[in-house]
Amino acid sequence: MKKMGINEFQDKLFTGKLNRRQALSVLGSVGVMASVMTPTGLRAAEQPLVFEWAGYEDPLFYPSYAAAHGEPDFGFFASEQEMATKIRNGYPADITHPCADSWSRLGDAGVLRPINTDKLSNWPDVFDGLRNHKAIRNAEGDVMMLPCDWGNSSIVYRTDLYEGEESWCMLFDERYEGRLSSYDSESSILIAGLCQGYGEESFDMTDEMLAEVRPLVEKQARLVRFYWNDNAEIENAMATGEIIAAYSWNSSVKNLKEQGVPVAFAVPKEGILNWLCGLSITNVGTGDDDLVHEYLDAWLDPEAGKFLIEDWGYGHSNRRAFEIADPELVAALGFPTDPIAMLNDGILFQPYNPVVLEKMVNMFDEIKIGI
Questions:
Q1: Do 363 and 214 fall within a single domain?
Q2: Same domain, 215 and 352
Q3: What's the pLDDT score for residue 371?
Q4: Nearest CA to 101 among 362, 354, 369?
Q5: Which residues fall within 8 angstroms of residue 196, CB to CB, at 6 or more apart?
Q6: 18-48 burial string, b = 16+ CB within 10 Å, else e?
Q7: Quick one: which of 64, 52, 54, 68 has its CA closest to 18?
């Protein structure tokens, strides 16, 4: 490896062109490990460890942070259940990316700490409806999840191949055996509850309700071609016509339409699901606290929001992001004049009753084993 002079090192470090491992390697060679000099003074060298969904490591999601500090370290999870389990078991993440219905699993386990919004320069530009949303705060009123990305969960389907009304029951349609797909999680049980007409009670089903939906979930397990873990799986299968209808998110609709695939995003008669996700700070990491909050603030940057809206098709929490995003694309994605109204028109994902969630997870695992 070519040795780097101190001037070159400082230039790369200050402009964000040096990653953590490169910096520590150079610093270690001169016996400096605990801190480095930055344009703003002495700062701990310990970059945050961000536990994320794959794809969110792109520096365009945190542009100001990347420009100032380079990229943090990343680990990845495939589901919120996996994320919560690993952090509760000691995975040393500083920051993670839960949703409104899942951060409480970490909060109840005592592994989250409140976010200091006074350190976030972009916080005042967050939609009022999100800054004050009860879904992001604990009982004491502390912000435990920084609202960042939001959108819908519904059914993407081939308009040229599927016939019938838009309903959550589409994913249990026997006419399309072997041509359906759903997310590989207990959400299939939630969907069965919505199909049964339970509405918001689907997040807190009684034992009787769970018993009623079990045959429906067993039926779906026989009908699906596969349960998916990565959006690319269903997008590829839907583009070829292998799959006709699948549980999905806004981004899949955007990606498929860009390929010219004739698809629509269902607005189920029982109510579309709305999700709200964001960033939380754990108390098990070792990253520098100022860097942790800088990373969170960078996610709220309107330029980061513009990228999220235009490239991923999701909503962003900063109102200014919608002002600078392509207005034609914003309209094509279905966002209304008041984007937050979109969150109020459907069924917002809620924290599951922990006891009910455990029963749902166990039921789904048992059904999959029995396929």
A1: yes
A2: yes
A3: 65
A4: 354
A5: 209, 212, 213, 216
A6: bbbebbbebbeeeeeeeebeeeeeeeebbbb
A7: 68
For the beta carbon of residue 14, count every other beta carbon within 10 angstroms: 17
* Largest Cα span, the chain: 70
Q: Which amino acid is at 173?
A: D
Query: Do 360 and 295 share a structural domain?
Result: no
The pLDDT averaged over each successive group of 10 residues in the chain (371 residues) is: 37 37 35 32 66 96 97 93 92 95 87 97 94 90 96 92 96 96 93 95 95 96 93 93 94 88 92 93 95 98 97 93 92 76 80 87 91 65
pLDDT of residue 10: 38
CA distance 348 to 33: 45
Answer for the pair 95, 342: CB distance below 8 angstroms, yes or no: no
**Within this chain, do residues 231 and 326 fall inside the same structural domain, yes or no?**
no
Stated pTM of the model: 0.69
**Under DSSP, is residue 4 helix (H, G, I), strand (E, B) or coil?**
coil
The whole domain housing 115 covers: 46-144+276-337
Neighbours of 262 (CB within 10 A): 11
Q: How far apart are CA 209 and CA 360, in angstroms?
A: 11
Q: Are residues 126 and 169 in the same domain?
A: no
Q: Residue 101, Cβ neighbours under 10 Å: how many?
A: 20
Residue 120 to residues 63, 165, 301, 342, 362: CA-CA distances in angstroms?
Answer: 15, 45, 10, 25, 40
SS3 string, 325-357, reads CCHHHHHHCCCCCCHHHHHHCCEECCCCCHHHH
CA angle 154, 159, 163 (to 5 degrees): 90
Q: Within this chain, do residues 61 and 132 fall inside the same structural domain, yes or no?
A: yes
- Both tokens of residue 11? 């230039």
